[in-house]
Specification:
The complex is a heterotrimer of chains A (417), B (206) and C (315). Chain A has 17 helices and no strands. By secondary structure, chain B is of the alpha+beta class. Chain B contains 7 helices and 7 strands. In chain B, the strands form 3 sheets. A 3-stranded mixed beta sheet of chain B has the order 1-5-4, with no helix packed on it. In chain B, strands 2-3 form a two-stranded antiparallel ribbon. In chain B, α4 crosses α5. The radius of gyration of chain B is 26 Å and the shape is globular. Chain C is an alpha+beta fold and 315 residues long. Helix content of chain C is 26%, strand content 16%. Chain C has 10 helices and 13 strands. In chain C, strands 11-2-13-12 form a 4-stranded mixed beta sheet. In chain C, β6 and β7 form a beta hairpin. The relative contact order of chain C is 0.19. Chains in contact: A-B, A-C, B-C. At the B-C interface, α1, α5 and β4 of B face α1, α5, β11 and α10 of C.
Chain lengths: 417, 206, 315
């Protein structure tokens, strides 16, 4: 196993070397992490009272970000399914990047849960065997289970693939394929279980709608690939990484279907709420029109809808889909739209008005922004470093000594099929 | 836990059919009430009379006119009197012969400490509720000795609709007397927006 | 009575519609001690109480361990407040199932219960202010309608014309959504119906707060502010002992009083006698009299939480 040590040493070398832009980017991320650490220290000292969460709105910005990022993580499956099930070659080259994105998103998810906890040092109480997890009754234990499983599957999959490619060997299908196939249901279940976490709460009518899980999946299939499309273009330029236009356009086409479903489900929900107009309408009203003078979320809700509709149109029309300017604009709009819709737009109206009909208008504090920035900093740093290692392996510039330094390295994986 | 709960529900269903509620309980959970503590009821101290008003007979010794009329005295009661004023007057409840006791409709008399018997003549449903502990306030043990208040602890007999009460001491014991003013509520809870003043322990001077 | 008992009563992690139950915590005691060993040394360095870290779940504590835990709470109280306290863990009595009745036609909204509760149960007074009882002012025109209710009413005198009052606290559900949601079994329903929290086991994730339809669970967003002079020294481990920062707390029917036969503080203080309490299994109890002679209803019955807290209109 001396090869592993060599491999790790090589990884470190990859990570510390890089151009000015790379170093500036890493420095920026380290700075945001520092901001996050300082903000978290403040929170650890004073308690969660430094956030604007209160009994009335007891989950907020952290959990909103968590929910959005679960969607990003789950979206890796969008790339995995066609690549491995339908053996569609161009996408297969980039699946590994989707998995890296999933790993980074999952790291952020777990961190957001951790910073949201009142007693994070008691994390052992939820762990199987050493703690007393309330399994299977508590949905949070399910969520912890699937998120960690998904993380594990992705880490194993990526490490195995990278190490084999690094050694210039082709991977063993008997190990690789079952893991890939496993990652598909696990990925879908992460998002489904997260939706069920809210969905199962009869106390919160805004969440207690069976349409929630399908909406989660649909919006995840929009937001995750949006990141990937932009990333592919960066990698193509920076590393001469062979990603074909065809692959990007295919992903964009799949996204437009997902966006249609997402908008349709939103429409279905809005119809039901506004037409039946029961007391449960209040929560939807708080998001879209406000209740009396309480209108904090209203501009965000409409902005998110605007983004989603424009992005949908841009992705639907083949000409704008294939034009990289409009394509990238669409990706940004999707990101913004889903971030609002699945983050604050989901969590806050679920809790406003509260279960006793009282309205507390939540807005995150500076500390919350700081902690969130830190978590995103960690996530982006993880992703940056993983990509920094993975891409040279995939393009064949980072290889074990003596390994076949073949130019057509990415095909080493494909060759196994 | 499961072994316990399953036969429990089965037995309950059986009990439902047999309409025998607590006769057959599973050994797992002896649900029959344990031997009850003897329930002792203590009467609270009644609210005091106005200063120097009792015994009434000191003034009323020679007043034996039973006709209903405007009184030239007891203005303080006449001013607030609101107890079916159209039909009632003093001697419906106060005894003509002995003003130091109260008079039931039957003509029998009761001491002031048992005034609830007088109230109960008309307010039968409230009286029953009160005796069972459904109406009125009690203090003490839910399964044992407890102190109950009298009707007049909370309701001014001359203006009985509930307005408010105040705590008073009678014979060195805390009890309650009715007031003619409505209750002032305690301060409202802090709004979540107001709970933002977290200070570092050093600044807060802990 | 039979029909009432035939409700789907959830006893302490028993069967529920999901059909599954949490694993027996005692099996884990050994595993935890073994596996946690490595982490202990690290945490000890960070000022985390190692004994607490290694402790077992409340329900798996032996008599001796429990005594030690209680002694430790007393010691901590002494350090924190400089006062001697008596902390017990009195268990449920067999044959007792608590029931609570609240007479909506009597309540005048004076909030005496709110502050009596705060005092009895050692809640944080401010920053955060924690009230286990929330009195809602409602409009007679609308009935029990939360969208037209006001928690923060200010009035010179109560009741105000056209309003009625609806106090809400933990309903001690027979089918408690909070217990289902808790990921660590830090909250559970006891045999006498009281839903309790072990403040030393709660991780502060607030799933229970999202799950509770009654706003009955409250978070210690900061270190509770409780003046030593106002500390109630008679304490129950699962009830009114002072809480640490970052955990959730709730009404326990004054477990430290009611397990010893006393009325809850809110029942005793209520100036209009709107609050009734007793043993549902005792046909002579005040609460049973309420249920038999009055018509009771439960709050948010559509959620099938089956509260042990009943509202009624005596007139």
């Amino acid at each position: 196993m001396s090869g592993v040590f060599e491999f790790l040493k090589g990884c470190v070398r990859q990570v510390v070397s890089g151009g000015k832009a790379y170093k500036a980017w890493v420095a920026f991320l380290l700075a945001t992490i520092l901001v996050g650490a300082l903000a978290y220290a403040e929170q650890a000292r004073g308690g969660l009272i430094v956030t604007n969460m209160r009994d009335e709105v007891s989950w907020a910005f952290y959990i909103g970000n968590f929910t959005f990022l679960v969607g990003v993580a789950a979206a890796a499956v969008l790339l995995v399914i066609p690549a491995y099930v339908y053996q569609w070659k161009p996408i297969k080259e980039v699946v590994v990047l989707g998995e890296l994105l999933a790993i980074s998103a999952l790291v952020m998810c777990l961190l957001f849960i951790l910073v949201d906890m009142g007693r994070p040092e008691r994390f052992l109480h939820i762990m199987p065997f050493v703690g007393t997890p309330n399994f299977p009754r508590s949905l949070l234990t399910w969520d912890a289970l699937v998120l960690n499983s998904y993380l594990l599957v992705n880490v194993v999959l990526v490490s195995y693939l990278m190490f084999k490619t690094y050694r210039g060997q082709s991977y063993d299908k008997r190990i690789f394929l079952p893991l890939v196939l496993l990652s598909i249901p696990v990925s879908l279940s992460t998002h489904t279980v997260t939706a069920f976490l809210y969905n199962g709460m009869a106390a919160r009518p805004y969440w207690n709608a069976s349409i929630l899980a399908p909406r989660f999946i649909a919006s995840a299939f929009c937001s995750g690939p949006a990141v990937m499309i932009i990333l592919f273009q960066v990698l193509r330029k920076a590393f001469k990484f062979p990603i074909q236009n065809e692959a990007i356009w295919k992903i964009a086409e799949l996204m437009s279907y997902a966006m249609f479903v997402n908008l349709f489900l939103l429409g279905a929900e809005l119809f039901k709420e506004y037409y039946s107009a029961t007391e449960h309408l209040l929560y939807t009203q708080y998001l879209w029109t406000g209740i009396g003078e309480h209108r904090t979320l209203v501009p965000y809700a409409w902005f998110a809808l605007f983004c989603s509709v424009v992005a949908f149109v841009l992705f639907l029309i083949p000409w704008t889909r294939r034009n990289f300017a409009t394509l990238n604009l669409g990706c940004l709009l999707i990101w913004a739209g889903v971030y609002i819709e699945k983050g604050m737009g989901l969590i806050i109206p679920g809790m406003t008005p509260d279960t006793l009909g009282q309205i507390y208008e939540y807005k995150p504090t500076l500390v919350e922004w700081g902690v969130a920035a830190g978590v995103f900093g960690v996530g982006f740093l993880v992703f940056t470093l993983l990509v920094k290692i993975a891409v040279p392996i995939l393009v064949g510039t980072f290889r074990a000594e003596g390994a076949a330094a073949s130019a057509e390295a990415p095909d080493a994986r494909v060759a196994a099929h | 836990m499961r072994q316990k709960s399953t036969p429990w529900i089965v037995v309950l269903l059986a009990a439902l059919v047999a309409a025998r509620a607590l006769a057959s309980q599973p050994a797992a959970k002896p649900a029959a009430p344990p031997e009850k503590k003897k329930e002792i009821l203590y009467e609270a101290r009644p609210p005091p009379f106005s200063d120097g008003i009792f015994p009434c007979m000191e003034c009323h010794k020679d007043q034996k006119d039973p006709t209903r009329r405007e009184l030239g005295f007891h203005d303080e009661q006449q001013a607030v009197f609101d107890h079916d004023a159209e039909h009632r007057w003093c001697l419906d409840c106060h005894d003509l012969q002995n003003r130091d006791v109260l008079r039931l409709a039957s003509g029998a008399t009761v001491p002031f400490t048992e005034s609830y018997r007088l109230c109960g003549q008309c307010h039968g449903d409230k009286y029953r509720d009160w005796r069972a502990g459904v109406h009125g306030r009690r203090v003490g043990m839910w399964d044992g000795a407890k102190t109950y208040l009298l009707c007049v602890s909370c309701h001014n007999p001359h203006s009985p609709s509930f307005k408010g009460v105040k705590e008073i001491t009678v014979d060195g014991k805390l009890t309650v007397a009715p007031t003619l003013e409505k209750i002032k509520p305690e301060p409202r809870p802090a709004r979540p927006e107001e709970m933002r003043g977290w200070k570092r322990p050093a600044e807060a001077g802990r | 009575m039979t029909s009432r008992k035939a409700l789907n009563v959830i006893q302490d992690g028993g069967a529920d519609p999901l059909g599954a139950e949490p694993m027996n915590p005692s099996r884990r005691a050994f595993l935890r001690t073994a596996a946690a060993g490595a982490a202990v040394s690290a945490l000890a360095g960070c000022g985390v109480d190692v004994g607490e870290f290694l402790r077992s779940h409340f329900k798996e504590l032996s008599r001796d361990e429990l005594a030690k835990v209680l002694a430790k709470v007393e010691r901590r109280n002494k350090e924190r407040f400089g006062k001697d306290t008596k902390v017990t863990a009195e268990g449920p009595r067999p044959g007792v199932e608590f029931g609570y009745g609240l007479d909506i036609s009597r309540c005048v909204g004076c909030r005496r219960c709110v502050y009596a509760c705060v005092k009895e149960n050692n809640q944080s007074r401010e920053q955060p202010q924690i009230h286990w009882i929330r009195v809602l002012e409602m409009e007679k025109d609308h009935g029990v309608d939360l969208a037209h209710s006001e928690l923060y009413y200010d009035a010179d005198t109560v009741p105000r014309p056209g309003k009625f009052y609806f106090p809400v606290q933990c309903q001690q559900c027979r089918n408690p959504p909070c217990v289902k949601a808790c990921p660590t079994q830090a909250t559970w329903k006891e045999q006498d119906g009281i839903v309790v929290i072990d403040y030393d086991w709660c991780i502060g994730c607030r799933c229970c707060m999202s799950a509770c339809p009654y706003g009955a669970r409250h978070m210690n967003w900061a270190e509770p502010k409780l003046p030593a002079a106002e500390l109630n020294p008679v304490q129950h481990y699962l009830g009114n002992r002072p809480r640490p920062k970052g955990v959730v707390e709730k009404c326990t029917f004054c477990i430290q009083r009611t397990r010893n036969g006393r009325y809850p503080a809110c029942v005793e203080v209520c100036p209009v006698g709107a609050r009734k309490f007793g043993n549902l299994l005792d046909p002579e109890s005040e609460i049973r009299r309420v249920m038999e002679t009055k018509r009771v209803f439960v709050f948010k019955e559509e959620l099938a939480t089956h509260p042990q807290f009943y509202y009624f209109y005596a007139t």
